[in-house]
Amino acid sequence: MTDPAPATADGLTHFDTAGNAVMVDVSAKDETERVAVAGGCVEMAPATLRAIIERGLKKGDVLSVAQLAGIMGAKRTPDLIPLCHPLALTKVAVELTPDPDHDRVVITATCALRGRTGVEMEALTAVAVAGLTVYDMCKAVDKGMRLTDIRLLSKTGGKSGTWTAS
Questions:
Q1: Is 102 annotated as ligand-binding?
Q2: What is the pTM of this model?
Q3: Is 152 assigned to a binding site?
Q4: Is residue 13 part of a domain?
Q5: What CATH number did the domain enclosing 105 receive?
Q6: CB-based burial of residue 141 (10 Å sphere; 0-12 exposed, 13-18 middle, 19+ buried)?
Q7: Which residues have a catalytic role annotated?
Q8: Is 137 annotated as ligand-binding?
Q9: Domain region containing 103
């Protein structure tokens, strides 16, 4: 077994010097408050969005179920993304907002903790799982929905400090 390197020559941290996948050793990092916010959208037909808003779908309250699914997704991130550390999240908030002007549901997730590694993947996973849940609950009436624009919006904490998407 080879010793893990801090990063490969091209800056990748999840590979050792021999190119093997490794979980990054964060034991030497300082614990700091870390927050990440991610966002995304589910685009759909106007009638589908109307049915969501009016709670007229057979599977129930789409926004509430998707909100819970997003929270659960954030908590299960290390089970889904192979090299993510299990984290003691102190906050997971998922908001789903209907946007009738653009026939979509806008999803925002905020994750926080005090720890040695960031929560970006947890926030992104929360958005993706919430979006997939919207799709699952509405696919009987609209198979053409699209999950779009899933991305990190901001992060704070750690040695890289604050970052905000432009």
A1: no
A2: 0.89
A3: no
A4: no
A5: 3.30.70.640
A6: middle
A7: 136
A8: no
A9: 32-164
